[in-house]
Amino acid sequence: MQEDSSRSPSYTVACEDYVHVVEFSPFSSGTTASLLAYGGNQYVVVGTCLFQEEDMEIEGVEFNVLRVFHHDLRVDALAWSPESRLDRIPTIRFCTAAADRKLRLLTSDLQDRHEVKVMEGHTSYINHLVFEPTEGKQIASVSDDHTCRVWNLDGNESTTLRLRSPGISVCWHPEEVFKLMVAEKKGTIRFYDLVTQQAILSLDCGQSPLMSADWCLTNTIKVGAVAGNDWLIWDITRSSYPQEKRPAHIDKARLFKWSRANENLFATTGCPGKISSQLLIHHLGHPQPVMIGSAPVGSGLSWHRTLPLCVIGGDRKLCFWMTEM
């Protein structure tokens, strides 16, 4: 596919600085708008997003900043708590990872209450983290230190899973709170039972390095990943080897994320190039990407909770692409 067939973003939002990570909250905010956080060198901005597809009176996108949180270092990863809501008493809770190998749990009522809890234990770079999605009382994180750690909100570790290579991605089952998926750099994806702390199933990429993996939370038999230049999809009921595998990015693939609105839709990004990063949106029924986009030195990738719309960060802006299905 040619670079010139790339589509410019459906919407953009200007930012003060370079955006390193961006995450839609996967949980309802209790209002029509979605919560979105983006992080850069020493800050996290939390705001709400409303798109014209959700409200006909809006032109494009309406982004309202709720609060800017100071962050000691550059934000490397960010996860939302299901306890973040804007109805009743507003509560914002999210967790970040930074290069000092610490997690920071930030809680705010957007008024006077503002707490930061620092969690220490990892001995190397933290690649990814996620909240337990039903109540948000625990956080799982994976690191280059060959561990996946599960933390309670008081900052104590409840579980440490020893891995055989760096932990790259971690996902929690949407209903079964004792099931965790952990992807390792050497190309293995394992599902753990947190009660027994044993692996109950494993998948194999057949190649490495695995850069990113995601569990399809609308249909949990599907798992996707990127390794080398390829994307790979598994049906976990059928085989430990991928059902489908295709080359995606010439310059190596970086991230894989399933859409939350459509179980057949997923996005991959290329490794940030010198000028731009490629975004590909794929549909399982189509041999070629259904959309190609690119963003200047883009990083991060996140899907909207209910719309077939994804966002990546970039140089002083957020870029949103709406997929017409």
From TrEMBL:
SUPFAM superfamilies: WD40 repeat-like. It comes from the Eukaryota. This is Nucleoporin Nup37. Component of the Nup107-160 subcomplex of the nuclear pore complex (NPC). The Nup107-160 subcomplex is required for the assembly of a functional NPC. The Nup107-160 subcomplex is also required for normal kinetochore microtubule attachment, mitotic progression and chromosome segregation. Component of the Nup107-160 subcomplex of the nuclear pore complex (NPC). The Nup107-160 subcomplex includes NUP160, NUP133, NUP107, NUP98, NUP85, NUP43, NUP37, SEH1 and SEC13. InterPro entries: NUP37, WD40/YVTN_repeat-like_dom_sf, WD40_repeat_CS, WD40_repeat_dom_sf, WD40_rpt. One of its GO terms (biological process) is chromosome segregation. GO terms for cellular component: kinetochore; nuclear pore outer ring. It is found in: Chromosome, Centromere, Kinetochore; Nucleus, Nuclear pore complex. Keywords: Cell cycle, Cell division, Centromere, Chromosome, Chromosome partition, Kinetochore, Mitosis, mRNA transport, Nuclear pore complex, Nucleus, Protein transport, Repeat, Translocation, Transport, WD repeat. PROSITE patterns: WD_REPEATS_1, WD_REPEATS_2, WD_REPEATS_REGION. WD repeats lie at residues 119-161.
